[in-house]
Amino acid sequence: MSLQELYQEVIVDHSKSPRNFGKIDRASHAEGYNPLCGDKVDVYVKLDGNRVKEISFKGNGCAISTASASLMTEFAKLKTIEEVRKVSDEFQSMITHEDYEPHMDIGKLAVFQGVREFPTRVKCATLAWHTLKSALKGREEIVSTE
Amino acid sequence: MLGTTRIIQSSDKPDLFSFKNIRLDFPILEEKVHGKQLVYLDSAATTQKPRVVIDTLRDYYEKCNSNVHRAVHYLGEKATRGYESSRKSIAQFINAEDVREIVFTRGTTESVNLVASSYGRTFLKPGDEVLISYLEHHSNIVPWQIVCNQTGAQLKVAPINDQGEIILEEFKKLLSPKTKIVSIAQVSNALGTINPLEKMIPMAHDVGAVVLVDGAQAASHMSVDVQKLGCDFYAFSGHKIYGPTGIGVLYGKAHLLEKMPPYHGGGEMILSVTFEKTTYNEIPYKFEAGTPNIAGAFGMQAALKYVSGIGLDNIAAYESGLLQYATLKLSRIPGLKLIGTAKNKACVLSFTLEGIHPHDIGTILDREGVAIRTGHHCAMPVMQRFGVPATARVSLGIYNNREDIDIFVEALLKVGEIFR
Ligand SMILES: Cc1ncc(COP(=O)(O)O)c(C=O)c1O
C-alpha cells in the first residue's frame, strides 16, 4: 500500500477545501474527539422527518479525518436516517475488516479503503461517522474514539 | 561493549564522537521499516537499547534469575547482590549522598505518584499550595491534581513565554509560605526547554517548599548531580536513558523519605507483621513492596555504565551540535514553524507545517522509515498555550547523526509533494 493510495486526490482535495464546513444554527449537534491525536469534529444535522435536510461539520483534524467528515456530509445530505446508518456500517466495515467484501455501492466514500492498511489512522476516518450517529440520536455528548 | 577509540580527532570538529561506531551498539538500527532503513527520531518517547543492555537482561534470566532479599540459596544471593549493586550505580550516577536515598520504581510516573501520595497526602493541608509549570508532562500534573483534591491544597501553575521558557518573575510571584511542594521538569518533553533549576530550586527553598525534579528527559542528555542541584526529590526512567522499560528511580533526601509513610503495602517493605501491628522496613525498602523488576535493575545498571562510558558531557556537547544542525535545516523549510525556541534547549524539535496536520506528517514519514512522534506529547497544556492541537516532534539521541536529519528533511519535502 503506497502513500498515494492513502492520500488519494479526492482526499487531499477535501482536506484542503472541506465541503459543508461551518455551523448550522438550531440543529442537532454532537462533538467527536480523538484524544490520541487531538482531532476534534462537530457535526450538525437538521432533519426533515426522517431525512437529512441539512448537514455540516466543523473541526480541527488531520487530512483523513477532515476529508472523511467532508465526504460524509456530501453523502448524507438528503438521505434517510436508515440509509445513513447502513452506509455508516458499510464504511466502518470497509476500513476495519481485512477480508472486506462490499455489500453495497458507497460511491466516492470508497476512496478511504486504503486506510485499512494504516491501523493508526482508522480512527481518524471513523470519527466523523461516530459523531454523526450520535447527532442523529440527538444526544448532546462528546463522542470519544477511545 | 564500548569500543576503545570512541573519540576521533578532526581539525574542524574536535572531540567529535565516532557515531558510526555508537550506532553499531544498537541492533535495532539495522531494522528496515516499510523497506527503508529505520531512522529513529523518537528518543524522547523511549530510547533504543544498546546490545550490552539487551545481553544483560538475557544473562540475568539465563544465569541469575531468583527473587531478592528472601533466599539463602546461591542464586538468590547473586540476584540480591546485583540488584543492590545497581542501586549503588544509580546513586553514583546522580551523585546521591547515600545509597538509601535511591528507591526503585516502575518509572518517572510512579516516582511522582509516590511523592504525591506519600509525602503530599501526609503533609499537605487545606490552603497549602503545590506549584508546577505549564511545561509539565501529564505525569507531573495529574498526581498533584489528585492529591490537591484529597487534601484541599491548591495547584498553581507557573506560565511560560512564547519561546517556551518558564517566566522566572512569575514563578517567583507564585511562591509564598503557602507553597509546600514545587514539582518541575528539568527538561520539557514537548519543547525541549531546559529549565533554570539552579535559580528555581533556591527560590523554592527560600519559602520553605520541597522540590521534586522530573528528570525523565534530562538524565540521558546532561550530567545530573542531585546534591549540586539541591533538589529534595529526583525522578527518572530507565527506558529513556537507554535502559529497559518498567524500571525507574526516585531519589529522595533520606530525612524526607524517613518521615514519609509507605506508598504500597506488601512483602519486602516490612520488618515484622502481626495482625495488631506491622513494623515497616528501613528506607528505601519501605517503598519497595512486592517483587521488584530485578532484571530491569540489572539492565538499568548496564545502561548507566554504558552512557557513563561515553560521558554525559560528551553526549551533551554532541547533541547540542546535532540540535543546531537540525534547527538550521528545519528553519529553511517553507511553512515550518518551530514550537519551543528556548535559548537553553535539549535535543527536541517540536514543529508544525502550515496547512498540514502533524498526524499526516507522521504517517508519511513513517513510510520513509522515519519514526517521529505526533500529537500532544502528554502535555496538552503546552499545546493549548501555543494554540495548536498537536505538533510533530523530532527527538534525538546519541545514535543519531546528521545523515538522519538529512533523510528526515528529505522525507518532509515528500509531505509537501503529497499535499501540493
Ligand atoms: C518530562 C516527562 N516526565 C515524565 C514522563 C513519564 O515517564 P514514564 O512514562 O517513563 O513514567 C515522561 C515520559 O514521556 C516525560 O517526558
Basic shape of chain B? globular
The percent of residues in helical segments of chain A reads: 25-40%
CA-to-CA gap between the ends of chain B?
Answer: 47 Å
Strand content of chain A: 15-25%
CATH class of the largest domain in chain B: Alpha Beta
Distinct compounds present: pyridoxal-5'-phosphate
Oligomer: heterodimer
Task: Find the biggest chain interface.
Answer: A-B, 23 and 19 residues
Structural class of chain B: alpha/beta
- How many independent structural domains of chain A? 1
CATH topology of chain A: Sufe protein. Chain: A
Spatial order of strands in the largest sheet of chain A? 3-2-1-4
Amino-to-carboxy terminus distance of chain A: 26 Å
- The total count of helices of chain A amounts to 5
Low-confidence stretches of chain A: none
Question: Going by CATH, what is the homologous superfamily of the largest domain in chain B?
Answer: Type I PLP-dependent aspartate aminotransferase-like (Major domain)
Order of helices and strands of chain A: HHEEEHHHE
Low-confidence stretches of chain B: 1-15
The Cα radius of gyration of chain A reads 14 Å
What does this structure look like?
The complex is a heterodimer of chains A (146) and B (420). Chain A is α+β, with helices and mostly antiparallel strands and 146 residues long. Chain A has a single domain, classed as Sufe protein. Chain: A (Alpha-Beta Complex), CATH 3.90.1010.10. Chain A has five helices and four strands; from the N terminus they run ααβββαααβ. Chain A has helices at 3-6, 9-16, 63-76, 81-96, 122-136; strands at residues 28-34, 39-48, 51-60, 142-144. In chain A, helix 4 runs antiparallel to helix 5. The mean pLDDT of chain A is 90. In chain B, strand 15 (336-339) and strand 16 form a beta hairpin. Chain B is globular and about 75 Å long. Chain B is α/β, with parallel strands linked by helices and 420 residues long. Chain B contains 14 helices and 19 strands. Chain B folds into two domains: 14-37 and 311-412, Alpha-Beta Complex (Aspartate Aminotransferase, domain 1), CATH 3.90.1150.10; 56-308, Aspartate Aminotransferase, domain 2, CATH 3.40.640. The complex binds pyridoxal-5'-phosphate. Pyridoxal-5'-phosphate binds at residues 107-109, 137, 139-140, 185, 189, 214, 216-217, 237, 378 of chain B.
